[in-house]
What does this fold into?
Amino acid sequence: MSAGTLIALAADEIVMDESAVLGPVDPQLGDMPAAALVRVAAKKPIERLDDRTLLLADMAEKALRHMKQVVRDLLADRLEPERAETIAEELAGGHYTHDDPITVAEATALGLTVSTGLPREAYDLMDLYPQEGRRRPSVQFAPMPDPGANPARRP
It folds into this structure.
C-alpha cells in the first residue's frame, strides 16, 4: 500500500474506488518501524542501549526525515507548505502501523483531494490482470456440528 500511496501523492489527481485504501509511507528497517526505533532509543538511558540499537535508531531518524521530505516534495505543487508538512508527518511519522489501511474518508480528512467513481475502463483494465489469492486468512471459520441436528442425540 505504501508504494501505491507514493504514486498517488505524485499524481495530479487521486481517484479511488470507494473500497480502495492507501497506506502509510513510514520507513521500515527490516522488520522494525523506523519511528518505533527512534522512540525506544529516546526513552531508554543511552547506557542501556547496545551499539546496534543506537545505529539502527540513527538510521531510522535519517529514514524518517528523508521520507517526510519526499512526501513534502510530492505535494509541494498542489498544497501550502504547512498542509504538506502535516500530511508528511501523518503518513511518514509512525502514527499508523505500516499495514494500516487509510480509507477515502481518512485520506480526505488528512487533507488529500480524493475523488471516487472510477470509470468503467479502469475496472476493465484491472480485469485483464487477475490476482491470485496468495494470503491465507488469519482466522478461519470451521463450523462445529449442531448437537441438536444429530437424531441419535435427541431425547
